[in-house]
């Protein structure tokens, strides 16, 4: 086993025992990137010199017997929507192709303070719009299990980098499932925390619960470790509200190490489609197999769903409000530098009225209340994480699912965005392969503020399925990817064709 193939928690343990150096781990990650990244294009901007200097400093601290922080010496991939000091941050847009921030945003700063070593950025769709990680700056990211297929997004680069063991931990963000969707497509764990748990000072609409930052990892223990360093009561984010001078979100031991839940004392609710999502048949069939395997582990298992009627319309409008605030001026002033999703999003947003926005906010509130009623009766809810199995990335989005047209270019993400509307915590956990041989992601949704519960339930399910040929976490063929032709040679790699 190469050091890069170690889990984050095991690598950190060995570093603390002085049986593995931060430099050895970093060089192993760099070697894996050099070997595999040409096939999938997950990692983008990198600064090897800076990362090596950070690793050497970490090794000196270890040698001197200094107290070591939680992520000490662990290389990180940072999503290219998040600003990193001295490292190119493009948002996947030609408008920022040469942008080098002068400082880290808060979440990145906290990861560095926890000992993380930023190795590089991970690829995204243009400004994170959509679940296909393509842009004209860096090109397309391919699925870790077949690079000609969609890696999903917008945290697609992070998911593929993790699946291929390029880095032990990576950051992500999620509005319509941008952490959960790529995690599902690539066989890793992606977590959307409760609104405000991981603060962000960059949200233009600070009180909106839709866009959230979160961790990505290869297993639940690693993800919990990363979350423990990201959670904060930072007042720069209005949703991270707390009492003056008191901290609730970053208490030591709250998230990591994670203790598996006793499933036999819990009730499970499951739904294939929340009553209305356009869930593909191949996804439904795999999900039923997972439910059949999981149900006996719980005290009670019931097919049930909270009422999310009107959720499509509410999400469409509220998402557009954010898009309009962030991107209307770009599309107006530099239309030639904006991709098709940018234009389509802004054009859609301009069609809505104040009455539409009011109705969407009202419906969002009702769906939230429906979730509270639901979780008063059920302990945890599971569903598929995403409506379809991966498709070729040349298809910008699924216009049809099982022969039926989708509402818009993000309707196929509805299993995730219904939960987004409520601010409830949700995770995508890998549970085997579907009929096409691609990873299947199980969405685990917890009650309001139930982040610890979701982690514990996921840890228990992960442990129950560990080593199971049908439901265990799948891994890509890294050796085959190292021999594969570069994704950059594929047609339309760096275009919208």
Kindly describe this structure.
This protein has one domain (3-240, 248-489): Amidase signature (AS) enzymes (Alpha-Beta Complex). The longest helix has 23 residues, at 311-333. The strands form 3 sheets. It has an 11-stranded mixed β-sheet with strand order 1-3-2-6-8-7-14-15-11-9-10, sandwiched between helices. Strands 4-5 form a two-stranded antiparallel ribbon. The mean pLDDT is 97. It has helices spanning 8-16, 22-40, 48-63, 106-113, 156-163, 180-186, 220-230, 281-294, 311-333, 340-351, 354-375, 414-420, 451-465, 478-483; strands at residues 43-46, 75-79, 117-122, 142-143, 146-150, 169-174, 189-192, 212-217, 267-270, 300-303, 380-384, 400-401, 404-405, 426-433, 439-445. Helix 2 (22-40) runs antiparallel to helix 3 and helix 9 (311-333) packs across helix 11 (354-375). By secondary structure, it is of the alpha/beta class. It has 14 helices and 15 strands.
Q: Tags for this entry?
A:
single chain; 497 residues; Amidase signature (AS) enzymes; eleven-stranded mixed β-sheet; 15 strands; 36% helix
Global morphology: globular
**Span between termini:** 40 Å
CATH topology type = Amidase signature (AS) enzymes
Helix and strand content put the structural class at alpha/beta
Low-confidence runs: none
- Rounded to the nearest angstrom, the radius of gyration is 21 Å
Overall CATH architecture: Alpha-Beta Complex
Beta-sheet strand percentage? 5-15%
CATH class reads: Alpha Beta
User: How do the strands of the widest beta sheet line up side by side?
Assistant: 1-3-2-6-8-7-14-15-11-9-10
Number of strands: 15
Number of helices: 14
């Amino acid at each position: 086993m190469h050091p890069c193939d170690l889990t984050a928690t095991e690598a950190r343990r060995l570093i603390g025992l002085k049986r593995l150096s931060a430099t050895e781990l970093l060089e192993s990650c760099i070697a894996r990137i050099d070997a595999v990244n040409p096939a999938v294009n997950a990692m983008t901007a990198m600064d090897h010199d800076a990362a090596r200097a950070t690793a050497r400093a970490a090794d000196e601290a270890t040698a001197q017997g200094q107290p070591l922080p939680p992520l000490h010496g662990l290389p990180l991939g940072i999503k290219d929507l998040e600003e990193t000091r001295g490292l190119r941050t493009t948002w996947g847009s030609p408008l920022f192709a040469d942008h080098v921030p002068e400082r880290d945003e808060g979440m990145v700063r906290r990861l560095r303070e926890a000992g993380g070593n930023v190795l590089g950025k991970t690829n995204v769709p243009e400004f994170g719009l959509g679940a296909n990680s393509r842009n004209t700056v860096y090109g397309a990211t391919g699925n870790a299990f077949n690079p000609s297929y969609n890696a999903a997004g917008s945290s697609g680069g992070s998911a593929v980098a993790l699946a291929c063991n390029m880095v032990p931990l990576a950051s992500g963000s999620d509005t319509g499932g941008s952490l959960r969707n790529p995690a599902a497509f690539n066989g890793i764990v992606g977590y959307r925390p409760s609104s405000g748990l991981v603060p962000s000072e960059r949200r233009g609409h600070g009180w909106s619960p839709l866009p959230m930052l979160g961790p990505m990892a290869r297993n639940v223990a690693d993800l919990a470790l990363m979350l423990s360093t990201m959670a904060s009561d930072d007042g720069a984010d209005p949703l991270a509200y707390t009492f003056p001078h008191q901290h609730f979100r970053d208490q030591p031991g709250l998230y990591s190490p994670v203790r598996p839940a006793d499933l036999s004392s819990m009730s499970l609710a499951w739904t294939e489609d929340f009553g209305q999502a356009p869930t593909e048949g191949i996804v439904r069939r795999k999900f039923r197999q997972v439910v059949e395997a999981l149900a006996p582990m719980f005290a009670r298992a019931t097919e049930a769903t909270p009422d999310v009627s009107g959720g499509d319309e509410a999400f469409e409008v509220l998402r557009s409000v954010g898009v309009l605030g962030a991107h209307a001026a770009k599309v107006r002033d530099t239309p030639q530098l904006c991709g098709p999703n940018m234009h389509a999003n802004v054009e859609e947003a301009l069609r809505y009225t104040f009455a539409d926005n009011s109705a969407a906010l009202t419906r969002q509130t009702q769906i939230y209340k429906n979730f509270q009623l639901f979780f008063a009766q059920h302990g945890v809810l599971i569903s598929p994480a995403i409506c379809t199995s991966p498709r070729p990335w040349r298809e910008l989005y699924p216009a049809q699912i099982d022969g039926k047209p989708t509402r818009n270019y993000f309707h196929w993400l509805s299993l995730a965005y219904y939960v987004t509307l409520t601010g409830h915590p949700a995770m995508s956990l890998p549970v085997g392969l579907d009929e096409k041989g691609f990873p299947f992601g199980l969405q685990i949704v917890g009650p309001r503020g139930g982040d610890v519960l979701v982690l514990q339930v996921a840890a228990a399910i992960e442990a129950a399925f560990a080593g199971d040929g049908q439901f265990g976490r799948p891994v890509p063929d890294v050796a085959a990817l190292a021999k594969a032709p570069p994704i950059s040679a594929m047609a339309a790699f760096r275009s919208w064709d």
